[in-house]
TrEMBL record:
The gene is Mettl7a. This is MET7A protein. Keywords: Membrane, Transmembrane, Transmembrane helix. Pfam families: Methyltransf_11. It comes from Mohoua ochrocephala. GO terms for molecular function: S-adenosylmethionine-dependent methyltransferase activity.
Length: 246
């Protein structure tokens, strides 16, 4: 329930961002955002986020080799790969399939691939996380998604697809920003920023309680940790990190 003060501050923020709202109304913001603004700004945010979350990611991906398939290979699918900032954490020889709904990341993705030659890149697919039909069922040992569940259209459909493509015993790794504690100032500001943030950052939702979606999905084992990744002036401090086993 958005209070009067939230609505008032939302209106002030919308006023500040009125040129973007106008471009959006004219149908010009979304294509510009997808092709130019979002890849550019995400690169910048990722540099800061990667520094702050590096320890958490090292810890998270440490047991990836445990999920190698019977053949001894590790087949990994990443959803919402973006510019490939997770590649550095994957074990040598890992076979990677990259997927992203936005083809405008190709350039920075190629740079990451050149930098991380310890991996085998099998395919780069332009696909929404809710629709991975190009990936056969039960064909991967691990799926990774970081900062991606905030902007998918349907979290539950995405998790259904993740479980479909994983082999039994395979694992889904995640690191996501989530809603803050409801009684906190952080949550108040998340509510204030919500509509403008979602417009500016290509559909990113600030107040998703993603741990609930993960608990509802059919994982046989689920490890979730609530952590804090503080980014200056950004309402995305509360995060969850962990993995679920099919």
């Amino acid at each position: 329930e958005a209070s009067a003060s939230v609505l008032l501050l939302r209106a002030c923020l919308a006023l500040l961002a009125s040129p973007i709202y106008l471009l959006s109304f004219l149908g010009m913001w979304q294509p510009f955002c997808r092709k130019v603004f979002f890849p550019f700004i995400l690169d910048k945010i990722c540099v800061v986020h990667d520094k702050k979350s590096k320890k958490h990611k090292q810890e998270l991906f440490r047991n990836l080799p445990d999920f190698r398939g019977p053949s001894g290979e590790l087949r990994l699918l990443e959803i919402g790969t973006g510019s490939g900032s997770n590649f550095q954490f994957y074990p040598p020889g890992c076979k990677v399939t990259c997927t992203d709904i936005n083809p405008s990341f190709q350039e920075s993705l190629s740079r990451s691939m050149k930098k991380n030659q310890h991996l085998h890149y099998e395919r780069v697919l332009v696909a929404a996380a809710e629709d991975l039909r190009q990936v056969p069922s039960g064909s991967v040992d691990a799926v990774v998604g970081t900062l991606v569940l905030c902007s998918v259209h349907s979290v539950s459909s995405t998790l259904r697809e993740v479980l479909r493509v994983l082999r039994p015993g395979g694992a889904f790794y995640f690191l996501e920003h989530v809603a803050a504690e409801h009684s906190s100032w952080k949550y108040f500001w998340q509510q204030v920023c919500y509509p403008t943030w979602k417009l500016v950052f290509a559909g990113c939702c600030l107040t998703r309680e993603l741990w609930k979606n993960l608990e509802e999905a059919k994982f046989s084992e689920l490890k979730i940790q609530h952590i804090s990744v503080a980014l200056p002036w950004m309402p995305i401090e509360p995060h969850i990190v962990g993995y679920g086993v099919k």
